[in-house]
Amino acid sequence: MTTHPMHPIRSEKGVALIVVLLLLAVMAGLTTGLTLNAQTEIAMAHNETYYAGARAAAEAGMNRAVQQIINDSVLDLMTTKSIPNIGNGPIALNGDYSYSFQLLDDDDPLLYGVALTGPATTVGTQLNAMGEDGDPDVDKNARMILRATAFGPRGTTVTVARVLSRFTNFDAPTVDTVNPAILVNGNLALDGNSLVVNGLEGNIHANGDISGGPATGVTGDITATGAIDESIDPGGLKAGGQAPVPVPEIKASDYLALANYKLTNVGTLGVIQVKVGDVWTACEAGGKTAATACPTGWTYSSGTWSASGSMPVSPLPGNKATYYVEGSAELHGTGKSTGFTQISVITEGSLKITGNGKFKPGNDSKIQFVSNGDLELGGTADADDPIDMDGQILVREQIKIYGNSEFQGRVMVENRDSNANACTTSAVVGCRKGTSALDASNLSGNMTVTYNGSLDGIPVTSEDTTPTYQNIISGWMEQQ
After folding, report:
1. How far apart are CA 313 and CA 331, in angstroms?
2. What percent of the chain has pLDDT over 90?
3. Residue 442, CB-side half-sphere exposure with 13 Å CA sphere
4. CA 84 to CA 91: how far, in whole Å?
5. Are residues 77 and 181 in the same domain?
6. What is the DSSP letter of 125?
7. How far apart are CA 275 and CA 253, in angstroms?
8. 136 in a structural domain
9. 113 domain-assigned
10. Within a domain: residue 15?
11. Edge-to-edge strands of the sheet including 91-92?
């Protein structure tokens, strides 16, 4: 057999080494790939852990904020934009996680990254559909968005959001009844040496300041919307800064129906009228019947009716009369030597009463004196009949009571401005005829007012202007 030796170029020596090296390269590649894959899986696992931790933190923060918001009814969250009690954070849970809050109006561009379409008045725009105006600081639809954002390792953030609906509540108005002896819609000076205000409702209130003093004879309360002089020392409560007490509008014409006689300013002498049926007609001097006869004791001059000496005498039974004066009136008499004259005077001008006349209301409504202008009660005028309880003095402008006068009942003063209330410069119904005598209300001298509260009280409505809020949380939004 003949053999042939191999050619050196065709030798297979070293093939195994190459194969082994290739296998090693493949194995190295696989190992590297598996290692990189493992690292990716580990990173993903870490990210999932961080995300789960951050989401749990966001949910925890949201739950905490919801509890604080629902439990609070005092804060206006649209104004504060802060979570009650705990604030907006950031609030740390541990070294790795924390959370913070945002309270945003539901049309705030921060929620969307862009401004919403408008205007709010145009149908079809986003703002119109939401009932909003595009101003993140003005809430139009009582709806906000609560966001809780949690922060974790490696910049991990998770934001969740819920809808906050807010309902504003006001307490129903409360109505209290007050019934002071003296009520003035303005400032009042108490300058009497021995001012006495007593009775079951011997109280004074002014919708303004009260000056003077010491007013130790006031057995009840002295209250005012403004300041009260430090020297004033009543027997009851003394309190400034109180709520106003409404004084009803005072117009002489509202009490015309009570009158038996109308003292007009017709002609140079004036005319006294009586009511026959529904018609006012001139009375009859020395008339045959009491119903049409004239009262005596009145004189007229330049728009003012006056009586001096004895009080006017009415021919009606018991001389009981209510006079309606189309101008001003003055009474400067002594009246009866005993007992009280049943006489009431209602004037479209001012009224002045001095002397020592003794009065009690001449009508069953217990209206004693009413004036569209000012009222002065002085001397020793006595309108304090112990039998006829609680008359009324009603003054549209200002009042002055002085001397040793007495009155039993309630005094109300509207305190109208004299210039604006003059009929010559104003078309206001109930304006004052004639001139004004006073520019301020003053109680002085040794006067006494006694009031036992038998007249209807004055309702005072108090509205609680402090709102409370009912907060309702709804919905759930994943924002990151």
Report:
1. 13
2. 43
3. 15
4. 14
5. no
6. S
7. 15
8. no
9. no
10. no
11. 91-92, 98-105, 143-151, 157-169, 468-478
Examine residue 65 and state whether it is found in any structural domain, yes or no. yes
Can you give the pTM of this predicted structure?
0.66
Domain that holds residue 73: 46-106+141-171+469-478
Q: In this structure, what token pair is assigned to residue 294?
A: 């004239």
Whether residue 260 is found in the same domain as residue 316: yes
Tell me if 373 sits within 8 A of 457, measured CB to CB: no
**CB 298: neighbour CB atoms within 10 A?**
19
Task: Name which of 96, 91, 101 is nearest 53 in CA terms.
Answer: 96
Spatial distance between the Cα atoms of 409 and 400, rounded to a whole number of angstroms = 16
Q: Which two tokens stand for residue 397?
A: 């402008």
Number of neighbouring beta carbons within 10 Å of residue 203: 24
> Left (φ > 0), alpha (ψ -120 to 50) or beta: where does 366 sit?
left
**CA–CA gap between residue 222 and residue 416 (Å, rounded):** 22
Pair 446, 415 in one domain? yes
> Peptide bond preceding 8: is omega within 30 degrees of 0, i.e. cis?
no
Q: Identify whether residues 204 and 96 lie together within a single domain.
A: no
**What distance lies between CA 125 and its chain's CA centroid?**
38
Same domain, 84 and 192: no
**Beta-carbon contacts of residue 94 (< 8 Å; ≥ 6 apart):** none
d(CA 151, CA 210): 63
pLDDT range class, residue 41, cuts 50, 70, 90? low
Q: What is the pLDDT of residues 365-390, one digit of tens each?
A: 999 999 999 999 888 877 776 665 68
- The tally of domains found in the chain comes to 2
Distance (Å, rounded) from C-alpha 88 to C-alpha 90?
6
Contact 206, 186 (CB under 8 A): yes
Regarding whether 166 and 186 lie in a shared domain, the answer is no
Contacts of 67 (CB under 8 A, 6+ apart): none
Phi-psi category of residue 475: left, alpha or beta, with phi > 0 → left and psi -120 to 50 → alpha: left
pLDDT at 209 over 70: yes
Shortest CA distance to 378 belongs to which of 438, 432, 318? 438
Name the nearest CA neighbour of 206 among 464, 194, 218, 328.
218
Q: Beta strands 143-151 and 98-105: pairing type?
A: antiparallel
Pair 382, 405: CB distance under 8 Å:
yes
Tally Cβ neighbours within 10 Å of residue 128. Answer: 17
Are 68 and 210 in a shared domain?
A: no
Helix (H, G, I), strand (E, B) or coil at 277: coil
Other C-beta atoms closer than 10 Å to the C-beta of 194 total 12
Q: Are residues 400 and 265 in the same domain?
A: yes
Bridge partners (DSSP) listed for residue 246: none
Structural tokens at position 442: 């003053």
Cβ pair 146, 473 in contact under 8 A: yes
Separation CA 341–CA 73 (nearest Å): 62
User: Model confidence over 86-130: pLDDT tens digits?
Assistant: 999 899 988 889 999 999 999 999 888 888 888 888 888 888 888
- Per the CB < 8 A criterion, the answer to whether 145 and 161 are in contact is yes
